[in-house]
C-alpha cells in the first residue's frame, strides 16, 4: 500500500465534532466475519426482504482488492465544451450526462461541509463502513417497520456509483444496485479496501463529481451551474445546503418545481445536521433557515441547441462541426462511436469560428430582402492556407421546433417546410445533395486548360451559339450540344480573361471541347468535389466523363462549403486544405490532439492558381492594366463594395434556380448563394440574382475593414501570353 497523505479537514472547522478514532479495518472485518452481525443487520433490517443465501460467494472476498483498484479508476462520462476561436465564446456543449470534473480545492468548503453533514457525518473517522450508522439504521428501520434510514457511507456510495460507471453490461449495473444483502456486503468490503488506497480528500472529490443532483446534473460542477448558474467555488451556505439535500432523492426534493416546501424542509434539515456536528453555529443556521430558496436556473446548451432550448446564431456552424467530428477516425471506428466520444469524452474544443465575423455573415444574409419564406440565402467564410471555416451564415434558425413553419414548397409534399426553423445542413457537411452552381463551374475548365499549358490569352471566336462535338439528346443542332450565351453582346473573339470575366458560355463550351471534358471533371475532383446524385455519378464515371461537355456550365450539384473551398484553394495559390471547423482539441487530461491540424497539400501549380486569380479579377474589375478583361465583368458590385481587389466568379443556373458568388482576397474567401433547399426547381427570380454578389461584397467590406490590403501575386508572363 502506498504512503497516504494527511487526511482532509475542511479549513477552519472541526471535522465531525469528535476526535474519537474509528475501528481499524481489521476490526471491522472481524466484526463482519465472526457473527455476520453487521451484514445480517443490513440484510435483514435495511433490506428485510432480501434472500440470505450465498452471501460469502457473492461478496467476492477473494477478488475485493483487485476490484477496488478498478473502482478507484472510474472514467465517468464528461461534458465536452466547444468554444469559438477566441477561446471564450461558448458555441455549445455536448453531453449525455451534464458533468465536468473539478478538483476538491475548487469546491467551496461550505459545500464540502454540507455534503458530509447530509450523507456521512463520521466520514473522516470511519474506514469505509460506519458501524454506528449500521446500528442507527437498524433501530430506525425496526421502529418504522420499513426502510427509513440506510447505512451507506460516502465511500460506499462512491463505490456503488463507480461499479455502475465501470459496468460493461446491464447485468453488472443490476448487480451494483440491487437491493440485496449480497450487494451490500460486497459494497462494504470494497469501501474498506478503497479507503486503504485513497485519501479522504480523494474519496470526497470523486464522490462530489459523481453524485446525481437531478435535472441531468451529474457532479457538483453541473449542479452549481444548473441550479445557481455558478462555479462550485462560489456556492454560499444556503445554496450548498440545498444541493447537499438533493442527493438522497433529487426528484422528491426538487427546488425547481413550483412547490418548494419539501426542498426547503430538506435544506433546513441539512443546516441542522451542520449544527449538530459543529460545522455551523445555531445563530448562523437560524439566519439561513428563514430565507427562501433563491435559484438562478440555467439549462446548459446541448448539441448545438442554445440555452433553455432556444436557437443559437452558431447553430449551423456547430452542426457542421458535429458532422465533421463524426467523420474523424481519431475518435472511434464508426460515426456512432465518434459521436458518443464527443458526448462523453470531456474534450475542450476551440473551433475556427470567428464570433464577430459570424455576426457579420448572419446580418447580411438576413438583410437581403427577397422571397425569404422559401429561399435560403447563406454564406460561408474561410481562411486561405488553412481551410479553417470562419463563419457560416444562413437566413434560417437552427431549431427542431418547426410547428410554426410555413408549408413545404414542393407541391407534392403535404408537410411543413424548412423556414424559418430547420436543422438541415443547408450549407453542406451532410450526405445530402446540393445545388447546381451554374457558371462558377467554368473555373474547372479554365484550370484544366491552364494546367495543360493553354495561356490566359488563348483566343477563341465565340458566337452567340456554337455547336460542339459533344453528343446531345436534343435535335436542335443535329444531335450535338450547342449552348448559347446569356446575351448577344457577349459574342466575339474572347480569351480566358474576357471569357471568364464576362462569363461567355460559347467560349467555355469550345474550351472544354478542346481541353477535354474528362480533364475538367478530374480537376473538379482534385479540388474536392463529390458526386452527390446518381445522375452526376453516372456522367462523372470514367467511361462517360469525356462526353460530359455541359459540365462546364455547372449542371452538377455541389454544396456551398465545398464550392467555397475550391476558391479558397485559389486564394492560397494552389494549396488545397480540407475544410476544417476545429483549431485545437484538448482531451480531459490536458493533452492536445493533432486532429485539428490543417490538412493541406499543394494541389495546383502556384502559377496556375495565380493565372486563374488574374482572370477572376476580371469578374469584379472592368479595367485593369495588362489584362484584357473585356467591356464588363459580371460582378463589378463586389469590387465596389469590398473597396479592394477581389477575384471570383458568379453563377446562375437555367431558369434562375440558384444564384452564386464565390470570391476571395489573399486573406479571406467568401461563398454566397441563394436557392430553395426544399424544392430546387423553384427559381430564385431575376430580382434575386444579384443578392449573393451584394452579400459577399458587404462581408468583404466589413470583415476587412481596417485590415491592411495584401496584393495578389501576378502570374508569370509565360502563362499569360504563352511565349
TrEMBL record:
The protein's UniProt keywords, in alphabetical order, are: Carboxypeptidase, Glycosyltransferase, Hydrolase, Membrane, Multifunctional enzyme, Protease, Transferase, Transmembrane, Transmembrane helix
- What residue stretches are annotated with the Glycosyl transferase family domain? 95-274
Pfam families for the chain:
Transgly (PF00912), Transpeptidase (PF00905)
Sorted alphabetically, which InterPro entries does this protein's record hold?
Beta-lactam/transpept-like, Glyco_trans_51, Glycosyltr_51/Transpeptidase, Lysozyme-like_dom_sf, PBP_transglycosylase, PCN-bd_Tpept
Q: Can you tell which superkingdom this protein's organism belongs to?
A: Bacteria
List all membrane-crossing ranges: 36-57
Q: Where in this chain does the record put each Penicillin-binding protein transpeptidase domain?
A: 378-702
- Enumerate the catalysed reactions: [GlcNAc-(1->4)-Mur2Ac(oyl-L-Ala-gamma-D-Glu-L-Lys-D-Ala-D-Ala)](n)-di-trans,octa-cis-undecaprenyl diphosphate + beta-D-GlcNAc-(1->4)-Mur2Ac(oyl-L-Ala-gamma-D-Glu-L-Lys-D-Ala-D-Ala)-di-trans,octa-cis-undecaprenyl diphosphate = [GlcNAc-(1->4)-Mur2Ac(oyl-L-Ala-gamma-D-Glu-L-Lys-D-Ala-D-Ala)](n+1)-di-trans,octa-cis-undecaprenyl diphosphate + di-trans,octa-cis-undecaprenyl diphosphate + H(+); Preferential cleavage: (Ac)2-L-Lys-D-Ala-|-D-Ala. Also transpeptidation of peptidyl-alanyl moieties that are N-acyl substituents of D-alanine
Task: Map out region (Disordered) in residue numbers.
Answer: 1-22
PANTHER family under this entry? Answer: BINDING PROTEIN TRANSPEPTIDASE, PUTATIVE-RELATED, PEPTIDOGLYCAN GLYCOSYLTRANSFERASE
This chain belongs to which protein, by name?
Answer: Transglycosylase domain-containing protein
Organism of origin: Glycomyces tritici
Q: What taxonomic lineage is listed for the species of origin? A: Bacteria, Bacillati, Actinomycetota, Actinomycetes, Glycomycetales
Amino acid at each position: 500500500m502506498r504512503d497516504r497523505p494527511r487526511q482532509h479537514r475542511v479549513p477552519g472547522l472541526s471535522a465531525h465534532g469528535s476526535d474519537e478514532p474509528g475501528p481499524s479495518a481489521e476490526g471491522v472485518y472481524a466484526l463482519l466475519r465472526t457473527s455476520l452481525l453487521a451484514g445480517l443487520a443490513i440484510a435483514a433490517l435495511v433490506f428485510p426482504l432480501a434472500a440470505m443465501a450465498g452471501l460469502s460467494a457473492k461478496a467476492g472476498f477473494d477478488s475485493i482488492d483487485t476490484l477496488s483498484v478498478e473502482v478507484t479508476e472510474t472514467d465517468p462520462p464528461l461534458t465536452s465544451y466547444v468554444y469559438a476561436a477566441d477561446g471564450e465564446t461558448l458555441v455549445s456543449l455536448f453531453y449525455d450526462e451534464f458533468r465536468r470534473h473539478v478538483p476538491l480545492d475548487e469546491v467551496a468548503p461550505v459545500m464540502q461541509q454540507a455534503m458530509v453533514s447530509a450523507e456521512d457525518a463520521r466520514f473522516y473517522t470511519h474506514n469505509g463502513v460506519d458501524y454506528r450508522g449500521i446500528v442507527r439504521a437498524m433501530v430506525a428501520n425496526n421502529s418504522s417497520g420499513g426502510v427509513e434510514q440506510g447505512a451507506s457511507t460516502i465511500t460506499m456510495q462512491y463505490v456503488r456509483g463507480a461499479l455502475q460507471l465501470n459496468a460493461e453490461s446491464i447485468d453488472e449495473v443490476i448487480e451494483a444496485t440491487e437491493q440485496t444483502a449480497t450487494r451490500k456486503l460486497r459494497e462494504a468490503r470494497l469501501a474498506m479496501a478503497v479507503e486503504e488506497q485513497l485519501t479522504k480528500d480523494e474519496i470526497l472529490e470523486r464522490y462530489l463529481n459523481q453524485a446525481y443532483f437531478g435535472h441531468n446534473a451529474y457532479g457538483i460542477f453541473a449542479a452549481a451551474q444548473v441550479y445557481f448558474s455558478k462555479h462550485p467555488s462560489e456556492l454560499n451556505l444556503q445554496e450548498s445546503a440545498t444541493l447537499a439535500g438533493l442527493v438522497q432523492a433529487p426528484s422528491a426534493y426538487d427546488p425547481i418545481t413550483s412547490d418548494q416546501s419539501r426542498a426547503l424542509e430538506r435544506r433546513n434539515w441539512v443546516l441542522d445536521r451542520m449544527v449538530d456536528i459543529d460545522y455551523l453555529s445555531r445563530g448562523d443556521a437560524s439566519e439561513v433557515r428563514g430565507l427562501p430558496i433563491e435559484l438562478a436556473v440555467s439549462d446548459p446548451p446541448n448539441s448545438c441547441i442554445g440555452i433553455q432550448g432556444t436557437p443559437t446564431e452558431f447553430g449551423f456552424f456547430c452542426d457542421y462541426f458535429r458532422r465533421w467530428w463524426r467523420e474523424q477516425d481519431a475518435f472511434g471506428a464508426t460515426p456512432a462511436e465518434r459521436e458518443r466520444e464527443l458526448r462523453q469524452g470531456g474534450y475542450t474544443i476551440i473551433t475556427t469560428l470567428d464570433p464577430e465575423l459570424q455576426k457579420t455573415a448572419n446580418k447580411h444574409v438576413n438583410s437581403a430582402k427577397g422571397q425569404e419564406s422559401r429561399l435560403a440565402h447563406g454564406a460561408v467564410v474561410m481562411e486561405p492556407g488553412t481551410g479553417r471555416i470562419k463563419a457560416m451564415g444562413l437566413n434560417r434558425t437552427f431549431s427542431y421546433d418547426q410547428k410554426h413553419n410555413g408549408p413545404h414548397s414542393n407541391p407534392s409534399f403535404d408537410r411543413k417546410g424548412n423556414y424559418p426553423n430547420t436543422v438541415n445542413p443547408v450549407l453542406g457537411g451532410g450526405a445530402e445533395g446540393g445545388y447546381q452552381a451554374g457558371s462558377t463551374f467554368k473555373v474547372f475548365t479554365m484550370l484544366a486548360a491552364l494546367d495543360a499549358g493553354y495561356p490566359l490569352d488563348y483566343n477563341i471566336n465565340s458566337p452567340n451559339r456554337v455547336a460542339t462535338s459533344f453528343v446531345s439528346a436534343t435535335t436542335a443542332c443535329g444531335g450535338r450540344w450547342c449552348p448559347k450565351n446569356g446575351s448577344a453582346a457577349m459574342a466575339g473573339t474572347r480569351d480566358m480573361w474576357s471569357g471568364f470575366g464576362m462569363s461567355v458560355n460559347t467560349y467555355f463550351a469550345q474550351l472544354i471541347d478542346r481541353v477535354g471534358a474528362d480533364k475538367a471533371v478530374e480537376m473538379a475532383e482534385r479540388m474536392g468535389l463529390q458526386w452527390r446524385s446518381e445522375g452526376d455519378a453516372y456522367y462523372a464515371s470514367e467511361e462517360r466523363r469525356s462526353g460530359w461537355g455541359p459540365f462546364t456550365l455547372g449542371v452538377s450539384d455541389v454544396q456551398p462549403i465545398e464550392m467555397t473551398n475550391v476558391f479558397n484553394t485559389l486564394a492560397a495559390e494552389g494549396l488545397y486544405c480540407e475544410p476544417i471547423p476545429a483549431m485545437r482539441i484538448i482531451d480531459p487530461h490536458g493533452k492536445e490532439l493533432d486532429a485539428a491540424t490543417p490538412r493541406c497539400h499543394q494541389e495546383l501549380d502556384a502559377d496556375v492558381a495565380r493565372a486563374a486569380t488574374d482572370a477572376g479579377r476580371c469578374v469584379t474589375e472592368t479595367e485593369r492594366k495588362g489584362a484584357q478583361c473585356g467591356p464588363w465583368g459580371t460582378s463589378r458590385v463586389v469590387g465596389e463594395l469590398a473597396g479592394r481587389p477581389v477575384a471570383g466568379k458568379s453563377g446562375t443556373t437555367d431558369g434562375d434556380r440558384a444564384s452564386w458568388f464565390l470570391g476571395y482576397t489573399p486573406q479571406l474567401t467568401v461563398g454566397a448563394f441563394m436557392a430553395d433547399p426544399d424544392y430546387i426547381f423553384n427559381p430564385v427570380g431575376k430580382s434575386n440574382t444579384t443578392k449573393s454578389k451584394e452579400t459577399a461584397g458587404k462581408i468583404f467590406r466589413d470583415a476587412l475593414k481596417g485590415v491592411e490590403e495584401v496584393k495578389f501575386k501576378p502570374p508569370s508572363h509565360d502563362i499569360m501570353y504563352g511565349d
